[in-house]
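[Discussion] Sanity-checking designs against the backbone

I'm trying to build intuition for which residues belong where. Below is a C-alpha cell string of 358 positions. I'd appreciate it if someone posts a full sequence so I can compare it with mine line by line.
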C-alpha cells in the first residue's frame, strides 16, 4: 500500500492500493469515531460498487445506508444536495454520522459539499471510483455544485478525513471514464513533472491494458503533485491556480455544451488551446502544443473544439469563470513541458485567434 500525506490545516492521508475497498472496515476506526455511515453515490456506481461496499461495512458492524442520485453532471446542482440532505434527515442521520462519497468527480464534489453544510458540518471520506476522481477531484477539499451560469459556482473548501484509492475498480467502469481521467494525468505532466509526461508517452499501451504497476505509478505521481500544491496553497490564493491548466477554456466548453461533454474531454481540448496560446504569446520557450496534442490523441482524447461551438460563445462563458478576479482573467500557460507560467489578461484577439484555428 502506498500512503501520501496532504499537509493542509487539518492533515489527512491518501491510501492507494488495488483491492483496498475490502480493507475499509479495518482502517475506518483509525480516522472516525462513529459507526453510522451515509454512503453518497450515483445510480450507476451504486450497482457496480457501492452496494457491495455497504454490505462489507455492515458485515463488520457498521450501520450504513446508501443515498443515490442519477449519474452525470446534470445532477450536480443544489436541488440534488437538498434532496440528499432531506433523505438523510428522514433516515435519522445526525451530527455524529460520517459521509462517504463513493463514485466519480460529481459524487465526490457533492458528497463533500453536503458534508460541509449538513448539520453545520460532518466528517467525510472520499472513495473515488473513477480515474478522474482518483487523480484529481478527491484530493484537495474542493466541493460544490453548478449553476446555469457556470461550473462550481457554489461550493466550499472542506477537507476529507481520508481518501481511499482502489485502482482495482477501474477495470469495471467504461473505457470512456478511464480515458476521461487520463487528461488530468497529462495535465500534471504538463505543468509540474516532465518525467510523468514522458512516462505517459512511453507507457500508453500498458494503460490500455489496465496494467497494475502502470496505474499505481500514474495515480501516485498525480496525487503526489496535487498534494504538494494543495499543501502550499489550500484555498487557491496563488499557486493552486496552476491546477487550472486547460480548465479555463475547458469549463467554458462544458458550459457551452450544457455539460454534455465529459470533463476530461473538455480539459483535453482546453490544454491544446492553452498550449497554442502559450506559443502565440511567446510564453513557451520551446514548442509544446504539437507534443501535447500528439499524446492526447494517442490516449484517445479530443484535441479540437466541436464545430457547433463558436469562439464567441466560449468567450461569453469565460466572463463568468471563477478564475476571473476583479475583472481580470489569469490563465495557466506553459514555458515548456513540466514548467508553467501565470499570464494575466491575455489579449482577447489572441484567444480568438487560437480558438478559431481549433
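Best answer:
Here's mine. Compare freely.
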Amino acid at each position: 500500500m502506498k500512503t501520501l500525506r496532504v499537509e493542509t490545516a487539518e492533515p489527512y492521508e491518501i491510501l492507494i492500493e488495488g483491492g483496498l475497498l475490502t480493507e475499509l472496515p479495518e482502517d475506518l476506526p483509525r480516522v472516525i469515531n462513529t459507526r453510522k455511515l451515509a454512503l453518497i453515490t450515483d445510480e450507476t456506481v451504486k450497482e457496480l460498487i457501492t452496494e457491495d461496499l455497504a454490505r462489507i461495512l455492515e458485515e463488520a458492524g457498521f450501520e450504513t445506508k446508501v443515498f443515490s442520485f442519477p449519474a452525470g453532471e446534470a445532477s450536480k446542482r443544489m436541488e440534488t444536495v437538498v434532496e440528499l440532505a432531506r433523505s438523510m434527515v428522514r433516515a435519522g442521520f445526525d451530527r455524529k454520522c460520517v459521509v462517504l462519497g463513493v463514485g466519480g468527480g460529481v459524487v465526490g464534489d457533492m458528497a463533500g459539499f453536503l458534508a460541509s453544510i449538513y448539520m453545520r458540518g460532518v466528517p467525510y471520506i472520499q472513495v473515488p471510483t473513477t480515474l478522474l476522481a482518483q487523480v484529481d477531484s478527491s484530493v484537495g477539499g474542493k466541493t460544490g455544485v453548478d449553476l446555469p451560469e457556470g461550473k462550481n459556482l457554489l461550493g466550499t473548501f472542506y477537507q476529507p478525513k481520508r481518501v481511499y484509492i482502489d485502482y482495482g475498480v477501474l477495470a469495471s467502469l467504461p473505457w470512456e471514464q478511464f480515458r476521461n481521467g487520463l487528461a488530468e494525468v497529462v495535465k500534471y505532466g504538463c505543468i509540474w513533472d516532465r518525467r510523468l509526461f514522458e512516462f505517459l508517452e512511453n507507457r500508453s499501451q500498458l494503460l490500455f491494458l489496465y496494467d497494475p504497476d502502470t496505474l499505481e505509478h500514474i495515480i501516485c505521481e498525480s496525487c503526489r503533485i496535487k498534494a504538494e500544491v494543495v499543501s502550499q496553497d489550500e484555498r487557491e490564493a496563488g499557486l493552486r491556480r496552476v491546477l487550472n491548466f486547460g480548465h479555463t477554456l475547458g469549463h467554458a466548453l462544458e458550459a457551452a455544451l450544457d455539460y454534455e461533454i465529459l470533463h476530461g474531454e473538455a480539459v483535453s481540448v482546453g490544454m491544446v488551446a492553452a498550449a497554442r496560446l502559450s506559443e502565440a504569446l511567446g510564453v513557451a520557450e520551446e514548442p509544446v502544443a504539437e507534443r501535447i496534442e500528439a499524446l492526447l490523441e494517442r490516449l484517445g482524447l479530443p484535441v479540437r473544439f466541436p464545430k457547433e461551438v463558436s469562439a464567441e460563445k466560449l468567450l461569453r462563458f469565460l466572463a463568468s469563470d471563477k478564475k476571473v478576479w476583479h475583472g481580470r482573467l489569469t490563465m495557466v500557460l506553459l514555458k515548456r513541458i513540466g514548467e508553467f507560467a501565470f499570464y494575466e489578461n491575455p489579449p482577447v484577439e489572441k484567444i480568438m485567434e487560437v480558438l478559431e484555428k481549433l
